[in-house]
Please model this.
Amino acid sequence: MKVRTRFAPSPTGNLHIGGLRSALYPYALAKRNGGDFILRIEDTDKKREVLGSKEKIGENLKLFGISWDEYYVQSERLDIYKKAAEKLIKEGHAFYCDCKARNAKTEGFTKILRDPCRDKNKTSGAIKLKVPENETVSYHDLVLDKNISWDTNDVQDATLLKSDGYPTYHLAAMTDDLEMKITHVLRGHDWMPSTPIHLLVYKYLGGQMPELGHLTDILDPEGGKLSKRKGSTSVEGLIAEGYLPGAILNFIMLLGWAPKDNKELFTLEEFVKAFDVKGLQKSNPVFNREKLDWFNGQYIRQFSDDELKIKLQIQNSKFAELSEDKQLAITGLLKDRIVKLTDINNFAKFFFETPEIDKNLFGESYKEHLKMAINVIENIKDFDLENLNNKLMDAIKTNNFKTGDFFMTLRIAITGQKFTPPINDSIIILGREETLKRLKSSL
Model:
């Protein structure tokens, strides 16, 4: 049987990293086995839909190299769900309910499991699942690798088709899985409580039910499940912060899956070849920002200076206005020191903006340091890094200055900061004239 998997997001906002992972693992499972990966937009909850989200989902997946073989939009398939619901009615597995719909936000979720309309033979209204009494429903979880079961006496008569003709997830997703011949479903752990409803719908609709696996929850370092409301954990939010798509994807690969050989750096192609559902973890991973930074730094250092320069130009328009030579020199200086593309705005700002100097940062001997530095730099004939290093070190020894204190004075006077790329390299890039101007201004 050909492996067919799906990613079925709702267009309700930015793609969360948990959503990207829910696309990545099924994609890898399908492609590892020569199968098909389906993108299915579940847009039947029109009240929650955010305009433009459908298109953004596709754009985001393409950004990460995740392509699909088939594409569906649920709101274009309403007739299919209606027929499925009517089939369940006809066969006695569902019933009409014309009671006023409950507003869960204001009234809370009902604790009544058996709907009062289930045995009244009504002919209009919403269609609900008629859960059987005194039965057991079970399945073997692909991720947890164990059998899980429920007593149907604890399962609610769930709504399948609303009175406005739109299906709920319980009907639409299960109908589509069967219609599209999905063989494996990897989905979020938050769907576990609804699984007995889904098992019954699969059973009553008929056909080959897919294997189900529930992925771990990604946890917030501060505790609890990582929230979708945190902009920094949306795919677009992370990219805006200066993270690279390849690094984000690599980081997410290992948030719930472990390779056999403890390898950490994977291209998408390498990941697909290595992916095995047995490597899906059972314990919840924590969103580790430091690890994401490490991945991003690794990916930045894989670029050539020319490639990185182009990406830094996009991040900072003032950097892009510098000469080609200066751009390349700054890029080479930053390449091993930054972890995000946006770090250029802090680490390199002094190259294209004259900094404001807080003289409170200076030590007691700063005036002597600055006078000496000005004198040395004015009198270097061949202004290059080697001569600058040698002449300044000679002057430090002659004046019996503390090396660290002297260079900190120089760093603050030229950059306005205590932490920057190597200061002598920075002086050469800035040039003699600009360097002297800043030193004299600090005096």
In short: The longest strand covers residues 36-41. Residues 355 and 416 are 5 Å apart (CA to CA). The beta strands are 4-7, 36-41, 70-73, 94-97, 126-129, 136-141, 146-151, 159-161, 184-188, 211-215. The chain has a mean pLDDT of 94.
